[in-house]
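Can anyone check this?
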Amino acid sequence: MSPDNTNYTQSVSAVCIHEGKVLLARHTYGSGKGLLIIPGGYVNCGEAPETAVRREYLEETGVVIAPQELVGVRFNDHDWYVVFRAAYESGEARSDGEENSEVVWLPVEEALTREDVPELSKIMIRAAMQPGGWQQQSMTSRRPTTLYVNKA
């Protein structure tokens, strides 16, 4: 998608844990440069967060995921960021060569102790390991609507 289609006030990410390992990408720019973070990115205008996180994962890591429950939300004065728990579906982890320099599956416990994994990623990894979360629920509405409620 072209940059003018990007909504820079909405971003998504997901924690994908598969066989005891979490998927992380070494960021190449901005405040996350050089750090291993949970993959994600901006939502395009008119795109649902679930669709955006699937797209971002595939583009950045080569891995196909299925977003499940929401495990975290961060708001600040200029944007919002939502994080899903995600199931691994397919694909081989690889760098996109632009936004990240490497994509790795790390044992969860190792990821939680490494200095090159930022605190926000660690918080979201821990949250994804807990039962519960906000699960999608159907709702009748005149406009396309996605509703998440806490089912814990």
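Reply from J.R.: I decoded it. The chain is about 20% helix and 45% strand.
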